[in-house]
Amino acid sequence: MPPSCSRCVSQRVINLETARKLGIAAGALAVGLKGAYASLYAPGRLVPPSKQFPATRLASTVIAAATGSIAGITAGNRMFLHLIPSGEGTPWLCLGCGHAFRVLD
Ligand SMILES: [Zn+2]
Fold this sequence. Notes:
Layout: E1 13-15, H1 16-40, H2 55-83, E2 90-94, E3 100-103
Antiparallel strand pairs: 1-2, 2-3
Helix pairs in contact: 1-2
The structure holds zinc ion.
């Protein structure tokens, strides 16, 4: 059961550790989806010939998209690390006032 916020006593708190893991999973999923999307629209399949993307251009677009997503994950992860207060216990974030705190199990 989540604890209540130590500042505003709200019970709308999220576990930052879980949120961080979910964020990374969502980011990895986005990378996978982008790859699937790119292969779906590979030249000669669904794209009309006039709108065909040169293969090298497509490859660099996919790489750029993947790199961007990885950078996004890293930035998100860094944001979480910045958000999580140092110390022992489970990190929580209050959705009511934005206060981050830790609760010892
Ligand atoms: Zn609060």
